[in-house]
């Protein structure tokens, strides 16, 4: 008996007839309406009675919302692998991750040659398919910066550019029957997709054995290969043979195939709507129930938690992988897993964690938190992985990724209260809220995670109009170090609620935030380039203009040094918005003209668009970005002395990326003690990126230290203890230590600029930051 532990898939195999081209589309839509998982189409490009399979799959993907689409199987004898890779990735992106790739070596050689294909022997066709696997996966590996080169016997790719990356990890299923193809399936593919009517007695078991052996030899688990099956047969009132009989017979036979032969993908060969209905409504649910019950009784390990020798050898010391709770093990990613490259890094930081946990609910967060405290390694929490400081990844530790908890739900229309999962990105939030005419100030990039920014501050493009993001947080769900699930608000655990808004990473794992959005219509988004030769003069004029502007204007500046004969330049990114209405273009133009007077204007463009067009959905797959060093400081004004200090910092050449974000406005209406973010009189936030922390510290301390007034830790990588009091000036720091002692006395959450818990036995313990033990 072999059960590989995969979740069950049920789908249809539809003939792409063109006699009535809407029929295959209607059957595909019916398959989705009935709750099936997959719709597939045979691919015979030389058949004039069929629709082109790629065109049909694209059309079906556009006509459906949930169901996955695949060829069954794609004829690779007539297609270039690199082209297939880009077509597949494109359709996956356009469909929101709903394309799966079934491929075969190609049959009907004479018909293919008649269409212009090269004639190949069967052995050459298999070689070509094996080379195609390498090329397809190479094209999808968009994070690899080197050009793709594959010099095969049949296919050659010499310096091809990689990408795009698909929306999800597209599985590649092979239609295979003979031993060499089966061995390729076991060693390299993600699934086996044969047709049951082509089998003789024992072929399924023999094929599984060959695949399993090849998988083990390649260092893989046999469960790395899903087993799918095109079924044939029909659901009838009377039994006349295998899969020829009533629904009860089908349920019994498919359940046996799942539990004894490891089949987890059942694809009904049916162009009859009644057959599809019976399969979807009478067979599929009963098979799922029967298999689930037996797996529960037997304690079957999910396929995703099984690993081969190569993956096991990549495990890191200090982590008891085998003790991981099953509900977490099913989605956890280890260094030897194929998905590891997409989860190891954050936006600007390279990482090599020993394990990435991906909980789907608060109970799994609590379970993971309890488990990780028993491990002897670093621990980090990640919302979306954009943090400049890089503390959402590590080397050899455990990362708790919240990306599986990213729902955006309107809780109360009247107050515009929205509940947002900590793993959502602000681009995803903006896209949901824009149709309602709502927006939440949320940084300047849509790939930033809700959990990180929403608990530290949130200096965004609507900041002067709305204040900080944390100023609009009204409630949170938090898992504390001891496993409690708490709701924090002004009425529940108010001390924790205060601390979460500014120092949340120190107190627990936030699973969702409730935020009250503002009513904001379309905004004017301006991109302006100015000559920054007189950097100090430019900064002084820009700063004064921003402070004098209506609160609807928020402007950010990026300073670039002189290079290649070009003068130093400043790019202004400015949003002009109105509360409860669309921005007035004429008023916006008047204010932008004043900004343009800050220095010689080199270029300008502006447009009226929804806030979701400024803070857009962005790809959350990160590949690291050079591991920069960073410093950050708050500035009360950009007066002459401060502007000259920034100019001198730029003159050192240490900062290759310097930005200044306008804050203040509505944010400064909030009392300093209302949240753990106490900086309520400053008007600008300065940050700098460099290649060397010590040299940057030297330049920053000399030039910016004397003029800065507080710090925003989300943009800082300097780990010296004095940073804590810059970010959390007294009495905020002492108050935070007291709250920390109540909710995290063991200092479990200590990787994100750790605040040491107060010692109840030492009344003076809260007088200053701790040293290395913090």
In short:
By secondary structure, the protein is α/β, with parallel strands linked by helices. The longest helix is centred in the middle third of the chain and has 26 residues, at 273-298.
Q: Can you walk through the features of this model?
A:
The two termini are 53 Å apart. By secondary structure, the chain is of the alpha/beta class. Strand 20 (473-479) and strand 21 form a beta hairpin. It is globular. The strands form seven sheets. Strands 3-2-1-13-10-9-8-5-4 form a nine-stranded parallel sheet, covered by helices on one side. It has a seven-stranded antiparallel sheet with strand order 27-24-26-25-29-30-28. Strands 17-18-22-20-21 form a five-stranded antiparallel sheet. Helix 18 (535-548) packs across helix 20 (640-651). The chain has 23 helices and 30 strands.
Helix tally? 23
Assembly classification: single chain
Give start-end ranges of low-pLDDT stretches: 765-774
Mean pLDDT: 94
Question: Secondary-structure map with pairings?
Answer:
Elements (H helix, E strand, L loop, with lengths): L8 E6 L7 H12 L4 E4 L11 H11 L4 E4 L2 E2 L5 H15 L5 E4 L4 H6 L7 H19 L7 E4 L4 E5 L11 E3 L4 H10 L2 E2 L10 H15 L8 E5 L3 E2 L8 E2 L1 H15 L1 E7 L3 H26 L10 H5 L12 H4 L10 H4 L11 E3 L4 H11 L6 E4 L15 E4 L6 E5 L4 E5 L4 H8 L4 E2 L10 H7 L6 H4 L6 E7 L5 E5 L4 H10 L5 E8 L1 E2 L3 E9 L3 H14 L4 E8 L8 E8 L8 H12 L4 E9 L19 E7 L4 H12 L5 E6 L21 E7 L2 H11 L18 H6 L4 H12 L31
Parallel strand pairs: 1-2, 1-13, 2-3, 4-5, 5-8, 8-9, 9-10, 10-13, 11-12, 14-16, 15-16
Antiparallel strand pairs: 6-7, 17-18, 18-22, 19-23, 20-21, 20-22, 24-26, 24-27, 25-26, 25-29, 28-30, 29-30
